[in-house]
Every structure is written in structure tokens, then in C-alpha cells.
Amino acid sequence: MKTGFVNIFGRPNAGKSTLLNALMGEKLAIVSPKVQTTRHRIKGILTGDDHQIILSDTPGIIDPKYKLQEKMMLAVKNALEDADLALLLVDINENWDEAHAVFQALSLKVPAVVVINKLDQANATKKEQAISFFGAKDYCREVAGISALKGLQVDGLIQTILKYLPEGEPFFDGDEMTDMPTRFFVAEMIREKIFYLYQDEIPYHTTVIVTEFKEKTTLIKIIAEIIVQRESQKGILLGEGGKMIRQLGTDARKDIEAFLGQKVFLELFVKVRPKWRDNEFMLKEYGYH
Fold first, then answer.
1. Has residue 173 been placed in a domain?
2. Three-state SS for 177?
3. Which DSSP string corresponds to 247-269?
4. Residue 73 to residues 3, 19, 77: CA-CA distances in angstroms?
5. Residue 259 exposed, middle or buried by CB count within 10 Å (0-12, 13-18, 19+)
6. pLDDT per residue as tens digits for the range 115-166
7. DSSP 76
8. Banded pLDDT at 288 (limits 50, 70, 90)
9. Cα atoms in the Cβ-side hemisphere of radius 13 Å centred on 237
10. Where are the alpha helices (DSSP H) in the chain?
11. Which residues, at least 6 apart from 210, have a Cβ–Cβ distance to it below 8 Å?
12. d(Cα 106, Cα 147) in Å, to the nearest integer?
């Protein structure tokens, strides 16, 4: 049995969450076109007849500007320390020199496979150039090319991963898909819709806390608080006459019902907590340990 921890690293918007979802065959990590959507380290447990791969999606690597981002980069640091294999994900259309600088700065102590994403958006010459560029780097054991969004070459990447994993007993039961609680995923689905529905800085000043999760006979009752930093942001989230918060609730509820396989009653409240992103106590309370 091949078993081990495989952690995904890369710059913001390289497609790390999309890759995790593609490898798992399930949507565990939220995605959006905006950078820095992922804040937590999310584990997906992929178990087959002869393997168990524990995959970790990590936040995009940045220079942190406030305590929340410091916590995000701490998640990256922790992921570096327990990996058996690193997947270094690069968007084929991004600046390769900048991606190389990020990968080199990780100072990896484990084997690394450079995964070149969005191959469907490049011609054959560019693909060859990317493979040659990263294949020559000292941290790179192997280069793999995929399209995470379209699922191209994902099965091949799994076989590549297995080559580098040690033999051992599984860490988790075969039916477990993640180590995160259901409440976490519900909050993340609400937060994902905020990224799609609201512009500019609003998603980055927002977090979501599920305060009630009750399973009743016919449905699941969920109450969640959306935390913002300023009264003006609360007004934007609510929208004129509460129009925007209703839209948010409707969109999030559909995804949550699909995820849970049950009818859901979802109630959302917006709370103002000034400077929560820089408050150690609040960050801990909101799950950013």
C-alpha cells in the first residue's frame, strides 16, 4: 500500500484548489477568479485499493501584510514540514521566473513534481519551453502537464504521485474524504459566493462563521454570521432593501443542499468587527489558528 502526504504549493491563482478538487473528483476547496480565495490548509483523502494519498491545498504564497495573511503563510510553512511529496503548481501563462523564485525559496527537503497547469491554453512550443525551463531546476524531480479545470492528464498525475510515496499503512478510514468538519465547508461555500457576488475589497475583509447547525426531520437549519470590518461594508453586503444578502443566501443554499444531500434552511446575519483581520483573539475565534 502506497500512502503519504502530498502538499500543493504555488502562487495565488495558479489553480491549487481546482487541482485538489480534480484529484479528489469532488469539490472540497472553494474557487473563484479572484486571488487569495484559499485561507486554510484543506486536506483531501484519496483512497484506492493500493494507495491512500492525503492531499493538502495551501494558500497562495504571498508577502503577508496583516495578521490573517500571516496565519495563511503559517499554514504553508506547516505544510512544508509534513510532506512526503510537493506538487509545485504553475500556471503556464504566468511569469515562470517569478514562480521559480517562489519554488526555490521554499527550500524543499522532499521530492517535488512541478505541475504545469492550463496546458489547454498553450501551443506545443510553449509547452515544450515550460517543461524544459522547470525540468532543469534543482528542486524538480519531474514535470507533469495538466488542465485541472478540464481534468486533462489528472489520472496520469496520480500515477506520477504514487511513484514517490512510501509504502505503509493508511492514516484514515477508507470512507473519509477530509479531516475538516461539515461546518467548515458550509462556511466556505457561503464565502465562495461572496467572492462571486461582491467586488473589490469586500471578500478580503469578510469571514463566515456557522453559529448553528441543527439536523431536523425534514431539513437542516443553518445560521451563519458574516463578519466585516466596517459599517459601510455591512451596507454593501446587505444591498438595497436586503436584495444582495437574499441573493447570497439563495446561491449559497443551493450549493450547501447539493453538498449535504438534504434540504437546508439558511439564515445569514452580518456583524461588524473592526480590524478583525489584525486581532489575534478574533482570528483564533474565527478558526485561523
1. no
2. coil
3. HHHHHHHHHHHHHHTS-EEEEEE
4. 26, 20, 6
5. middle
6. 999 999 999 999 999 999 999 999 999 999 999 999 899 999 999 999 999 9
7. H
8. confident
9. 29
10. 16-24, 67-81, 96-105, 124-135, 154-163, 182-197, 231-238, 243-260, 280-285
11. 183, 186, 187, 222, 223, 224
12. 24
CATH number at residue 52: 3.40.50.300
Indicate whether 135 and 63 sit together in one domain: yes
Residues 104 and 227 in one domain: no
Cell of 211: 453559529
Is 175 part of a structural domain of the chain? no
Co-location of 7 and 145 in the same domain? yes
Percentage of the chain beyond pLDDT 90 is 81
Residue 169, classified by CB atoms within 10 Å of its CB into exposed (0-12), middle (13-18) or buried (19+), is exposed
- How many domains in the chain? 2
List for the chain the helix, strand, coil content (%; round to 5).
40, 25, 35
The model carries a pTM of: 0.90
